[in-house]
Fold this protein.
Amino acid sequence: MYIEKRKVGKSIKYYLVYSYREKKEVKKIRRYLGINLSAEELQKKRATAEIQIKEKLEQLNTEIFNFSLSKKQIEKLNRYDSKIKVWHLEDWSWKTFTEQFVYNTNAIEGSTVQEKDVPEILHRDNPKDSEEKETKGVAKAVSLIRKTKEDVSLGLIKKLHKLCFKDSKSFAGKIRGVDVTVENIYGEILHWGAPFAQLPSLLDEMINWYKKNKNMFKPLVLAAIMHNQFEHIHPFQDGNGRVGRLLLNFILIKNKYPPINISLENRAEYYQTMQEYSKSQNLKPTMLFLIKQYKKTLRQVSTKKKKAKKVVT
């Protein structure tokens, strides 16, 4: 970034400018700082403008699904898949997984439902409040991704969102028409979702990328890429985290891999891996994190007396 000065009569106007290349064209982002500024005023105005430009760049970075990899890079990513053991889950294991996934995926987003109460809520005909409704909704979505013969599509993504939130949110199943941000507990912005006007083309681009590339990647890698890109786009007004984790598991299940439960206690590391992807499209932190969560999930849903059957691959 640099300061640009423009002389207007006897006065000088100051701008902060950032230049970048998009394909073969050089583009600039300018922020007006003021006129006839002192050195102290210029420094203060610049600090504010730098934040604004960085936020704008965050939005621009969502415009292109630029995940272009060489054959060697794909092979390196696919080797992460060999670090996990692939198992089938029995019906009793699926029950355990569903309860744990429902609790953790909602708790990551701030739900106050206690883990011990989830089994009872799932058997309750009349949930008491929106959090209990979302507990039952996510469980229905887990059932769908386990049984459906569909492939990844915008229709499936909307269906998952609607199942989760149809009894708690008026916009269930609808792509947002407003801009959104992801913030931490201190109100600091962690990520800007894609501008809503770009969502149709970005989602179409993501689905097309999946169809074109799904056979090039091992299931764990493919699921990680799609999850991270979905979260990067953030297509819904709320509920993106839950739908993204369902999408992750849908791709795994469709490829005969067991699902992953991302634990509440690992939320901070989980967010860090997604930030790393959004900033530099570095998938390595996500892969290492998912492998740890995979092993943790299998320990949680297995017992010494009832072990899941290993898949022969």
